[in-house]
Design brief:
Largest sheet: 4 strands, mixed
Number of helices: 7
Helix content: 40-55%
Low-confidence stretches: none
Order of helices and strands: HHHHEHHEEEH
Shape: elongated
Length: about 160
């Protein structure tokens, strides 16, 4: 994806709030991802340039952390917990329901760029299993039958903005 000068200007502005020290690398990448929904090669080069670190170090950090993505994510990331408690209480069926309803698989994004599905090992809410998080919103004790309502709520929430 070709980056526009406007986009790179935005990235430089985000990175510019950090002192030119390598210890701010992860924080800068997280801020860029929060704004852009992924880390482009050009964005990572801008971070390397600003912080004075090798591009290879930036790429290494960006690929090490699962929370960072090198491909565009949806505006709403649906994280389905597949940890032990959630798995035992039906998470695999929830994953299938979400995938079926959206027509995409794990780690894919809908054509309209609204949703990305991710399975995660644990969200730390075992008492509410199975758990789904959509960005920062938590849906607990969610079965496959409740998935259409959750998706509809999230779509409506987006159109109301």
């Amino acid at each position: 994806m070709a980056e526009t000068e406007e986009h790179l200007s935005s990235v430089r502005k985000i990175v510019g709030v950090y002192p030119k020290e390598a210890r701010y690398l992860l924080a800068a990448l997280q801020d860029i991802q929060a704004h852009e929904r992924y880390l482009s090669v050009e964005s990572m080069k801008a971070v390397a340039d600003h912080l004075g670190v090798p591009e290879s170090q930036v790429f290494s950090v960006a690929t090490f952390y699962k929370a960072l993505s090198l491909v565009p994510q949806g505006k709403k990331v649906i994280k389905v917990c597949t940890g032990t408690a959630c798995h035992l209480r039906g998470a695999p069926a929830v994953v299938k329901a979400v995938e079926g309803l959206l027509g995409i698989k794990n780690c894919e994004t809908t054509a309209d760029g609204l949703f990305t599905i991710q399975t995660v090992n644990c969200v730390g809410a075992c008492a509410m299993a199975p758990v789904v998080m959509v960005n920062e919103k938590v849906y607990g004790k969610l079965g496959p039958a409740e998935v259409p309502g959750m998706i509809e709520t999230e779509r409506k929430d987006e159109t109301d903005k």
